[in-house]
């Protein structure tokens, strides 16, 4: 790792990590948009993860989610752990597109699940939160017969307003923005870059080269290698 990048981490007081599927691939969770990913293998995947499908065929939606989205054996990797350590120092915020709960398992303190969390399941009838284990057994709430659903943002649903507000505030306060494991092409998440502090240093860590409309430092390598080498005070 370049000394200048390590120094940027050491000196930063308000780091924002913008992260995507590439963070969790080392934990055994596939990148859905990769060559062998869910979206590539199944052309209808986006429809199956839409609110329209959820409303029209709740049983089909439930079976699709159980089969394709849950990876209960996955554990946080070094990327989650190093980022979580920085949040525990109150020096960093993680804004993630991932819905796999691995940041929570890693003990991330300042975390914005921009697209929600598969492991937060609630009853649409009464609003009660239920254990994900119950949901994986049945999509019906045993308590009142209401339908259960994971608290994730489906296609044709809007992002939670509070998540947008919190994410924009974090970007405006950042003195270091670190993009990890995402091409930053999915909106509105990608639009967060427009709210960055103009004085913040931006570093992108990704296997594929990225291109943006502003100056940034590109680290084209495996993010697990980068974070394994990163020293956290």
TrEMBL record:
Per the UniProt entry, what species is this protein from, by scientific name? Limosilactobacillus oris DSM 4864
List the residue ranges forming a coiled coil, or say none.
none
Source domain of life is: Bacteria
Read off the PANTHER family from this record: NAD-DEPENDENT PROTEIN DEACYLASE, NAD-DEPENDENT PROTEIN DEACYLASE SIRTUIN-5, MITOCHONDRIAL-RELATED
Q: What is its EC number?
A: 2.3.1.286
Q: Which Gene3D superfamilies does the record match to this protein?
A: SIR2/SIRT2 'Small Domain (3.30.1600.10), TPP-binding domain (3.40.50.1220)
Classification via InterPro entries: DHS-like_NAD/FAD-binding_dom (IPR029035), NAD-dep_sirtuin_deacylases (IPR050134), Sirtuin (IPR003000), Sirtuin_cat_small_dom_sf (IPR026591), Ssirtuin_cat_dom (IPR026590)
Q: Keyword annotations for this protein?
A: NAD, Transferase
Q: What is the recorded name of this protein? A: protein acetyllysine N-acetyltransferase
Question: What are the recorded GO MF terms, alphabetically?
Answer: histone deacetylase activity, NAD-dependent; NAD+ binding
The family database entries (PROSITE patterns) matched by this protein are listed as: SIRTUIN
The cross-references to Pfam families, in alphabetical order and at most eight, read: SIR2
The residue ranges of the Deacetylase sirtuin-type domain are 1-233
Which top EC class applies here?
Answer: transferase
